[in-house]
Amino acid sequence: MPAIRTAKNRKPPPDGFEDIEDTLLEFENKMKDAQAASHEGKKKHEMLWPVFQITHQRSRYIYDLYYTTSAISKPLYDWLLKNSYADANLIAKWKKQGYEKLCCLRCIQTKETNFNSTCICRVPRAQLKEDQEVQCVSCGCRGCASSD
């Protein structure tokens, strides 16, 4: 989460930010802890999983506040997206049918995979073999198909 700057040309946050500021600070502290955590014994791709998961949680929190519970105003929501408190591209995908549970954008990018397909975590559990464990290599997700 970006630090709040107090420059003269910077707009102050809209009304209602004080209500969610504590939760956003908790997410910021979790992010700092995840970045400072030891990486010994982890594979190269596993080091970024906590960062992806915290970013997803923070974005989902803001998405739920605006779209599900209508607890924040449109100007506050726009300000949060503009100041990178949430991932605007991920939230845009959540609004589309079939992507309601999407964990990260890397899971739907086909160019980064061997077979030009989406990630294994996007496959519905009903189509997988029984007792088959699925974990995304990009973010550590264990399944984000909307039909699950």
Automatic annotation (TrEMBL):
InterPro entries reported in the protein's UniProt record: BUD31, BUD31/G10-rel_CS
Single GO biological process annotation from the record: mRNA splicing, via spliceosome
Keywords: Nucleus
Places the protein is found: Nucleus
Protein name: G10 protein
Family: Belongs to the BUD31 (G10) family.
Entries under Pfam families matching the protein: BUD31
Top-rank lineage group of the source organism: Eukaryota
GO cellular component, one term: spliceosomal complex
PANTHER family: PROTEIN BUD31 HOMOLOG (PTHR19411:SF0), PROTEIN BUD31-RELATED (PTHR19411)
